[in-house]
Design a protein that fits this description.
The complex is a heterodimer of chains A (247) and B (385). Chain A has 247 residues and is mainly alpha-helical. Chain A has two domains: 2-81, no CATH class; 118-239, no CATH class. Helices cover 75% and strands 3% of the residues of chain A. Chain A is built from eleven helices and two strands, in the order H-H-H-E-E-H-H-H-H-H-H-H-H. A two-stranded antiparallel ribbon of chain A has the order 1-2. In chain A, a hairpin with a 5-residue loop joins strand 1 and strand 2. In chain A, helix 2 runs antiparallel to helix 4 (100-135). The longest helix of chain A has 36 residues, at 100-135. The termini of chain A are far apart. Chain B is α/β, with parallel strands linked by helices. Chain B has four domains: 3-58; 62-254, Rossmann fold, CATH 3.40.50.300; 259-291; 315-384, Orthogonal Bundle (Arc Repressor Mutant, subunit A). Chain B has 17 helices and nine strands. Chain B has helices at residues 3-26, 31-58, 62-77, 102-105, 108-116, 132-148, 170-182, 186-195, 211-224, 236-242, 259-268, 273-281, 284-290, 293-303, 315-326, 334-341, 345-357, and strands at residues 85-89, 97-101, 121-126, 155-160, 198-203, 229-235, 250-254, 361-365, 371-375. In chain B, the strands form two sheets. In chain B, strands 2-1-7-3-6-5-4 form a seven-stranded mixed beta sheet. Chain B has a two-stranded antiparallel ribbon with strand order 8-9. Chain B is globular. The two termini of chain B are 20 Å apart. The chains are: A mainly alpha (247), B alpha/beta (385). At the A-B interface, helix 2, helix 3, strand 1, helix 4 and helix 6 of A face helix 1, helix 2, helix 3 and helix 16 of B.
Chain lengths: 247, 385
């Protein structure tokens, strides 16, 4: 009985966890609440396949080792679903053969929906929250914080470090001229390059500065944003504590 | 190696490794071990395949590469360009030398012609802050521009010598650095080197761990590539040690700025040049320092605007970078586009307007009432290549 119910269930859970890990890892964070239904569909496909693979594995191993079968089915099902072998064609091209050919279409469609929603929310957060908060910081402070961060940050290749510094150097004229889009560009760049902790710190500092200046508190403080969105960067900013913008 | 051949080899290796492990483990009649080995083999095959395909996909078209070089060079050269005098000794006639303005060295007409005569090899030497890196950045920028406008057939690449690992094969370093700097795949880089349709700008030979070792490796490597164009920079203090390795190179020595050049530059910056020159003359130590362009730039920065920005990127290069970014098919806000292309919004706006006018890019308003840009459907995919 255990093998019939718990076995497929355990395999499905393992496959679902792996699938969820893939979703989170590809984006560097947990998906927003608004796309959970799509994440659920994606995870369910992997889970169902794992549950279906379980009896096959079990029939070879015997019922005494049902937990082994669960592990093998749970791990192998997502892998097999993503399997793709590339063969050379006569025309010099590559022909992909494997289950991934079919599963990829569904996966990409769902990923597209997740990404579009998240990027739209990110853009909204950047335009409404992050960029206005950055604008409240003095230009010299903003540029020195960013430069200092990239000059000192560990684990960054020389090329990447230089490229980031060059970009912010190039932006400096636009920043000095007060171009709104330049501040949005900073936020987008920090989001895309995964330097979220710096962005959150700067937004928090900007929010505090704005609060001190009695300017547009409702619109730009991260705490308000956290209330409205429930997750995402604003929540991170809130939880950043009082460490300040530079790590 | 052709991509299809690499992919086939990867599949073969993966399948063979899976089969080999399976044969070994099947002897023990352990189903779990055999199944695990099979999965490991298949994962390996998939991983190798995906990795190969990803690398090939990431390989950028030569036009995008040229635009990236132009962007990098623009950032390197800075907005305050000071032209100095350089003494040029041609490789074929070491005894004769002549003075040239560095502005003529980077002038568009001369440059394409110089690099069309293969091989052109030069070492630019001078003290720290003399403007060696700026000079090669300006040369690379001009050449990238020519390449984008079909006026030159050589793609410039600026490589940092400081990233050379001692005892590393020179070609390995060139491949690695080209990939890290501009995402040029090994296949593309090998094609470029084999056809000599590339100009390597090696910045800061003196900054490498072992300048003599690097120069020696380069000399041996260049004997196998007789038509390749190379321009290197090195500080004067180290360059003399490298002379024996760089016999085939023309020697370009950047001279210190003279009083007239300093005065002219200060006048261009709308500073009281005569007054400043008089003050500088009364302080010979300071005058000695500002004969180096980097120190003169600092002086101008102290008097004028403290913000130094990069030189505006040419519109052709900006356009190529924009179309490359928009090629993903998504809609982008202006700020996102700036972040994707690394070009400031103020430089993007006119180019975007021009692209919209020509029907290549469409401008829409998204659900959040914000302006987004998207590649026009009529732009054929081939145009992205």
């Amino acid at each position: 009985m255990t093998a019939v119910i718990a076995g497929p269930l355990a395999a499905a859970v393992i496959a679902a966890v792996l699938s969820l890990f893939e979703v989170v890892n590809a984006r560097g964070r947990f998906p927003r609440v608004g796309v959970l239904q799509w994440v659920l569909i994606r995870v369910t496909v992997d889970a169902i396949v794992a549950a279906l693979v379980f009896p096959v594995v079990l029939s070879r191993l015997g019922s005494t080792d049902w937990w082994w079968s669960s592990i093998i089915a749970g791990v192998s099902a997502p892998i097999v679903l993503r399997l793709q072998c590339n063969f050379a064609t006569r025309g010099g091209g590559i022909r992909a053969v494997g289950p991934d050919n079919f599963y990829k279409r569904l996966r990409e469609a769902i990923d597209g929906k997740i990404d579009r929603y998240m990027s739209s929310k990110d853009s909204g957060w950047v335009v409404v929250v992050a960029a206005p908060a950055l604008r409240t910081l003095p230009v010299t402070r903003l540029t020195s914080e960013i430069k200092g961060y990239y000059e000192l940050r560990d684990g960054l290749s020389d090329t990447k470090r230089r490229k980031e510094l060059e970009y912010f150097e190039a932006l400096s004229v636009d920043i000095v001229s007060g171009d709104r889009v330049a501040y949005e560009s900073i936020a987008f760049r920090l989001l895309q390059s995964g330097d979220r902790e710096l962005l959150d710190g700067l937004v928090r500092a900007g929010g505090e500065a704005a609060g001190g200046d009695q300017r547009s508190e409702e619109a730009i403080t991260p705490a308000n944003s956290a209330k409205s969105s429930g997750s995402g960067p604003a929540r991170s900013a809130k939880s950043a504590g009082s460490a300040g913008p530079v790590p | 190696m052709k991509p299809w051949l690499r992919a086939t080899i990867a599949v073969a290796i993966g399948a063979m490794s899976a089969a080999a492990v399976n044969v070994v483990t099947a002897i023990q009649f352990s189903f779990i071990t055999a199944l695990s080995a099979g999965i490991v083999g298949l994962v390996f095959a998939t991983f190798v395949n995906l990795r190969l395909l990803t690398n090939e996909r990431k390989a950028r078209s030569p036009r995008v590469l040229a635009a990236r070089v132009a962007l990098h060079a623009a950032a390197m050269s800075g907005d305050l360009q000071i032209f100095t005098t350089a003494t040029v000794s041609a490789a074929h006639n070491q005894t004769a030398s002549w003075a040239a303005d560095t502005s003529t060295i980077v002038s568009g007409r001369n440059l394409a012609a110089i690099f069309a005569r293969r091989p052109f090899r030069a070492l630019i030497e001078g003290p720290a802050g003399a403007g060696k890196s700026t000079l090669i950045a300006m040369m690379a920028s001009r050449l990238a521009d020519d390449y984008l406008n079909d006026a030159a057939d050589s793609l410039p690449l600026i490589l940092r010598a400081s990233h050379w690992g001692a005892a590393e094969r020179f070609e390995d370093w060139v491949m690695r650095e080209a990939w890290q700097q501009y995402q040029v795949s090994r296949t593309s880089m090998r094609d470029l080197l084999n056809t000599s349709h590339v100009v390597l700008f090696l910045d800061g030979l003196d900054e490498s761990l072992d300048p003599r070792g690097m120069a020696s490796s380069m000399k041996i490597w260049l004997t196998e590539r007789p038509n390749l164009n190379v321009v290197a920079t090195c500080r004067s203090a180290v360059s003399q040690e490298l002379r024996t390795f760089l016999v085939a190179f023309s020697w370009i020595t950047i001279e210190p700025l003279d009083d007239m050049q300093i005065e002219e530059f200060l006048r261009q910056q709308n500073l009281p040049s005569e007054q400043l020159i008089a003050q500088l003359r009364s302080n010979p130590q300071l005058m000695g320092k500002v004969r180096r362009p980097s120190a003169l730039q600092q002086l101008v920065g102290a008097y004028g605007s403290a913000t130094r920005s990069s030189v505006p990127l040419a519109n052709t290069a900006t356009e190529v970078l924009l179309i490359d970014a928009l090629g993903s098919g998504r809609s982008f806000e202006l700020g996102e586009l700036s972040s994707e292309t690394s070009v400031p919004p103020s430089q993007l706006r006119p180019v975007l307007d021009s692209l919209i006018e020509r029907g290549r890019v469409t401008k829409n308003v998204n659900t959040s009432s914000r302006t987004v840009y998207r590649l026009s459907v009529s732009v054929h995919e081939a145009e992205l290549q």
